[in-house]
Design goal:
The structure holds 2 protein chains of 2 kinds.
Chain A: H1 6-15, H2 33-50, E1 55-56, H3 74-85, H4 106-116, H5 125-134, H6 139-154, H7 161-165, H8 179-188, H9 191-204, H10 206-216, H11 222-231, H12 241-247, H13 253-264, H14 270-282, E2 283-286, E3 293-296, H15 304-308, H16 321-332, H17 336-341, H18 347-352, H19 360-374, H20 377-384, H21 400-407, H22 412-426, H23 432-436, H24 444-459, H25 468-477, H26 483-486, H27 503-528
Antiparallel strand pairs in A: 2-3
Helix pairs in contact in A: 1-2, 4-6, 5-6, 8-9, 9-10, 9-11, 11-13, 12-13, 14-16, 16-19, 19-20, 22-24, 25-27
Chain B: H1 10-14, H2 20-28, E1 35-40, E2 45-50, E3 58-63, E4 68-71, H3 81-92, E5 98-99, H4 104-127, H5 136-167, H6 170-175, H7 177-189, H8 193-204, H9 212-231, H10 238-248, E6 259-272, E7 276-285, E8 291-299, E9 312-320, E10 328-334, E11 339-340, H11 350-363, E12 369-380, E13 388-391, E14 396-399, H12 402-405, H13 409-417, E15 422-429, E16 432-440, E17 443-448
Helix pairs in contact in B: 2-3, 5-7, 5-9, 7-8, 8-9, 9-10
Classes of the chains: A mainly alpha, B alpha+beta.
Amino acid sequence: MTTTTWEDLVTSALLGTDRRTPAADVLAPGEDAPVALLDAAALHTVRRRAGLVPAPAAPLPEPAPHDDRPPLPEAARRRLGRLLADRSGAASGGRRGTAPDLTELLPQWLAAANGHGYRAPASVLPALLDAARARTDLRPAALAFAGPRGLWLARFNPDWKFALRGASCRTALPSPDDEEAVRRLWEEGLFAERVALLGAVRSHDPGAALALLASTWSTERAEDRLMFLDSLRDGLSDVDEPFLEQALADRSRNVRSTAAELLSALPHSALAGRMAERASTCVGLDRTGGNAVIVVEAPHECDAGMQRDGVLPNPPTGRGQRSWWLGQLVESAPLTVWSSRLGGRTPEEILALPVADDWQGELHAAWCRAAVRQRDAAWARVLLGPPATPPATGPGTSSLAERSQLLSILPGGERAAWVAGFIAAHGLSEAFQLLGVCAVPWAEPLGRAVIDALDIARDAGSYPWSFSGVMGLAERCLDPEEADRLEVLTAVPDEPEGASPGAGGYWSEAFQRLVATLRLRAAMRAELSP
Amino acid sequence: MNQQGVRWTAEQVLALAPDDASRRAGSRLGAAGPWSGGGSDGTGALWGLCKGSGSRPYQTIVDTTGPAYKCSCPSRKFPCKHALGLLLLWAADEGAVRRSDVPEWAGQWLEGRRARAAGKEGGDAGGGPPTTSADPEGARRRAEQRAARITAGAEELEQRLADLLRGGLASADRSGYGLWEETAARMVDAQAPGLAGRVRDLGAIPGSGPGWPVRLLEECALTHLLDRAWLGIERLPGPLAVTVRTRVGLTVPADGPAVRDRWSVLAQYDTSDGKLTTRRVWLYGRDSGRTALLLSFGAAGRAPQLALPVGVAIDADVTPYPGAGQLRAELGTQFSPPVPHEAPPPGGSVTDAAAAYGLALRDDPWLDSWPVTLSGVIPVPGQDGGWQVADADGGHALPLSPAALARPGLWRLTALSGGGPVTVFGECGHRGFTPLTAWSAETPETVALT
């Protein structure tokens, strides 16, 4: 037996046998020192490997919380694997050909799976978290689908920290009835946990949530106060008024203006009343000329009371002070005030009234903002006007962004019908934003209007990529049932006189992709139904 | 089971892709859009026409029993994205690949393939062992010449190792990779590729992180052991002598009696040294309880031909290679298309795994790892990369190997476990445990970790 240790051999090998001759028990007389060292090392190595024993285990991780959602159907599980596998391929530029863009279907798939309440298969969680990391818009749905095990897993990988910041730590929240636990988490929790807690308590008992918020309000940082206040936007009600009224005197200007904005969305609040009064003194009716005319006398000053109610005194560059103030007053005043102020007229009649001295644009724009803020469908409807009216001559606003905001107040069916009318009259070139606010899948008249407009565009001989935005939307939003009707459009048509060269082929390709995507969506939907 | 045999899953198909780019491109072709004329003959053959950028669609044919692929596209990838897309389309079972008659363009290739396969089988059955050479005397002389060259190479390597140890391993860090590369080239000249590979591996150790002198001494010592074993091979017992010949790099044909069994595909993964891609497929025989390793090779950038999706079982002949402690085998006749097989092989504790590796070293002291199945183990995430797999009672644990920590499969394993016990197949060796495939009682899935 040798007594030379492994460490001795390593030292000797490191320094060289010329400098550190191995001990006598390794080196037999007459043997070459390096060979003797290698012999001994080989023996040691094999002996050490053969004698390996397991180490004591480190503390085991806490098991992931149980997830009692049902597992995905097998076909849906395979589909998810493919949607996630294609994720990284989206960056490749160039023509898309006829194959559907799987990346764009992931949000729909996740929404549908969450709708059915399925549990994510454990083995896809890493890919799912990676996808959510790359795309912030996917995060809420992806994290909801990943569920408690997804959050459990994210703790171990710094790449997935975002999942822990998110508000979806619902499982860890105490029951809103457990006052002590709620209080403790409120006082000691992380910001995200506190926001989530506030939301949970609020949906259960709005008064208790406000009491909780008020208990620590004065010690919160300004940006946190702003975020908390903003979180009241959901489920805003008259109960919140006293608290918001108090916040009008806040130290931070952003908190003050957010409080004022929220109050003005409550038509019965004191602030709305004060704004109604101010706005009424500025806008009135003049009957002297025989025909009724709206006359506007913009405010001459922005006094302390107005500023306390959230009116910003300084206009952005290029805007007059007085019209700036007027806009804010009208925007914050309840729309109900105008009927009585303007001779008992309906919104429609009010908008038809001429406005003196070029104030019409300013006044109508402010009413648009008020309708959006107060979610007043009757006003929104009139402000949009009939869809066939050219945008520039419409009653309310010509801005597509504001129009889509107004649209989003209307009930789903009416919204789709309005956009369908708009597309039938004006084509697709300005429809993209408006389509974005329509419910998915598109209602039939809307879907048909879009397809007809695409067909017309093709016949007009332009290239399909001029409509790639609408095409992409159509792939994601058209009702999959339309696929069969679209099939006829996938044929390559004869090139009409004066058409762009080759356009027919590209259109056929684009329609093929549309049909393929719709079929795929139908398949996805079918796979997910239990 | 339907007539087409089992449909593969998308993961199994994507595992065949030679690289990430083809995986993505294949996924994008895995929908009905560009395909037409798709069909299958019910015995594992698929075909379809895929519209590409040109006017003529590509003709893609796959024989899933091989699997083998043919496509009229110019891609040098193998399988190409069209073959992957066709397989995905078939896997998704959306009716785009229906049972139909074989079109003429596909029939030719398929018939040729099947005829060759039948011919090979017939030849095996009738001809007995293939005649080795027309000139046995010449073959013997050539073998002797080669053995003499290897002996000269082994002696030269011994000399170099002795010089290294005389001067000290510390100097190995300074001498750089060039010296090793030159020595490896000398071993190639000596027709001893096994020795050349070991020398190249030695060259990668200096400066490869904490503890490299220890690893270098261990590997030098084992190379020395192999040299001595070769130089004294006539005194070794038969099976060990074969192992030494294999390790040195003399190819020995698979000659063991073929074992017919239901072989579960436990794992498949590729390693590449820049010139050659080596694919390892681990099989487990349900009836024989044997574990076998299939090796196949591909030139750089091309995936090796053999591809068996993890999670299926094949009824096939497997012929072992000779040699003590050798698990390598050759896949022979497959008697049926793959069927799904999700159950893991029987497993043991981490202690059993370490002991199994130790025992295997008796037969082949040069083994780096040994295939084991651990049952009821929990992956334990650790700080600074110190991960473990521990017995569920929290008593003993094996560290995960550095190779395992670099793979994304680590996260799939952790997710599958969720802190609870799982069954894991992998390689247990002196550098730790490398998980390759996992099963959980919560799901019937076989989860590949490679």
